Amino acid sequence: MTHDHDLELRPTAAQTEAALNPPPGRTGGDLVVETLAGLGATTVFGLPGQHALGMFDALRRSSLQYVGLRIENNAGFAADAYGRITGEAAPLLLSTGPGALTSLAALQEAAAASAPVLAIGSQVPAAGLGGGRHGYLHELPDQQASFRGVVKSVHPVRTQSQIPSAIAAAWQSALTAPHGPVWVEIPEDVLRAETVLPVVTAPDANPEDLIPRPELTALAAHLLTTAERPAIIAGGGVVRADAAGKLKALAERLDAPVVTTYGGKGAFPWTHPLSLQSWLEDRHTTDFLEDADVLLVVGSGLGELSSNYHTFTPRGRVVQIEADLGKLESNHPALGIHADARLALSALLETAGERTDPTAAGRVRALLEKVGERIAAQDLTLEQDVLAAVRRALPDGAPSFWDMTILAYWAWAAFDARGTNAMHSAQGAGGLGYAFPAALGAAAADPTRPVLAVSGDGGALYSTAELATARQYGLDVTWLIVDDGGYGILREYMTDAYGETTGTELARPDFVALAESFGVPGVRTSPENLETDLRKELDRPGPSVVVLPALLRMFAPTHLDRPAD
């Protein structure tokens, strides 16, 4: 008796012929790029290095587009953004030791933001592993150990026949919710040696669906339908699951106000009558959410920023939908539903009943008025005007990438993303230097739209080498650098905490002249001319730099305003 799957596994005559007569001159590196192409990859990022040359040589014989950055950490940020924009696993090719380790901060951000990055690094020759001969250049005693605490999964390879399966398993891991970075490690001699293995054609690596348990979604639907004051916190998991439409439908069915976390920017329409926007570092918002008798948290672990620095203490019932099992109920007791946000919201929509609350929109308006009054009392007109100018200059739907800088902190709370997957920042892990290389990755993912990067001068100095990358590949990124002469937010933190600063003031280059030395147009602007200058550069094809000398201030924190019990 022959089963259907037996027929599917039986090779055709053409496949058998191709397997028996593989093209000459192929190496283990070819197995890597063939597997990536077979999985659907079209673009790879990285830097060559001595032990990784077998992979890079094989790129010449492949259809993969290669985008080479100047620093491995920046290549990791570019791959992170490519993964966020496309929802695909972004291959990142690295060399051994220093090259691999330099990518760790970027991979930490990808892990914190659940960005699917497929890092493939080389290793010293297999004879030097596991107690063999030592003394190789770049050698680490246990390179995998450096990645295990950062990435989602580690996939070591020791022979050529392991390459396709290891990469396919890593690809599946990266794209199974929650998305995340993964690490594949292949010795140099395995990459360089000729291979007699057939060309890799169609590896199977479909991500697994993370389906909610029906009894939990049934209970959650009942709690939400019968609630008196339901509210919703929408996190980055909604964006990653492409579930914004389902979230909006559920919020409207329940008449439930929605606040989006900083990682969830764009998950809910900014100007919707039920939108609380993103003012999470505001005591009025925290009080509103605490007052909900049923709080639905979708795709957020309610970490430091999303919980107003852990001052948030919900009084009602919490329902938490989270794909990352480690984040489920990690900060607050809840009805925890371990599931992909889209699948869980779909289940809730099938079960939840209609509820009408004629007071909901009014309560939302009243809250936003309180927030607005609080900000207006702080004499922060310059900051609000600068952010508004950026919003007016940036075309709707154009993605933006923000470094850890004061203007980005404002944007987390006050910027209308005008798109579900349009605004991204490094607030997951909080490292500097994210914005510009990430924007380059986004431009490589979709060259049809301009991309905006926003940095302070401190963060910009992490990334200036990538002006060469932007110029080499003609990537359509406009880089706004807010130059305040140092690490602005750290200057504020230290002044508030200690009365004076240490190490926050910086000598820096003439960023316009620096950009022009790379062949990238640059312009120095002012708050009054920012909108016009930024719009002009965004309209110009290819890379450009806009420098805004300005000393911006943060709005006052309100997590300290909590009244004593």
3D structure, described in words:
With 565 residues, this protein is α/β, with parallel strands linked by helices. It has three domains: 20-192, Rossmann fold (3-Layer(aba) Sandwich); 214-370, 3-Layer(aba) Sandwich (Rossmann fold); 378-549, Rossmann fold, CATH 3.40.50. Helix content is 40%, strand content 15%. The protein has 24 helices and 18 strands. It has a six-stranded parallel β-sheet with strand order 2-1-3-4-6-5, with helices on both faces. α9 (163-175) links the parallel β5 (153-156) and β6 (182-187). α3 runs parallel beside α9, α13 runs parallel beside α15 (341-351) and α17 (381-393) packs across α18 (406-414). The longest helix has 17 residues, at 360-376. The relative contact order is 0.10.
Salient structural properties:
six-stranded parallel beta sheet; 24 helices; Rossmann fold; 3 domains; globular; alpha/beta; 565 residues
Quick recap:
The protein contains 24 helices and 18 strands. It has 565 residues and is of the alpha/beta class.
Count of beta strands: 18
Distance between the termini: 74 Å
- CATH homologous superfamily label of the largest domain: Thiamin diphosphate (ThDP)-binding fold, Pyr/PP domains
Number of domains: 3
Mean pLDDT equals 93
By secondary-structure content and strand pairing, the structural class works out as alpha/beta
* Sheet with the most strands, sense and barrel status: 6 strands, parallel
Do you know the CATH architecture of the largest domain? 3-Layer(aba) Sandwich
Q: So what's the overall shape?
A: globular
Strand order of the largest sheet: 2-1-3-4-6-5
CATH class of the largest domain: Alpha Beta
What's the CATH topology label of the largest domain? Rossmann fold
Helical element count?
24
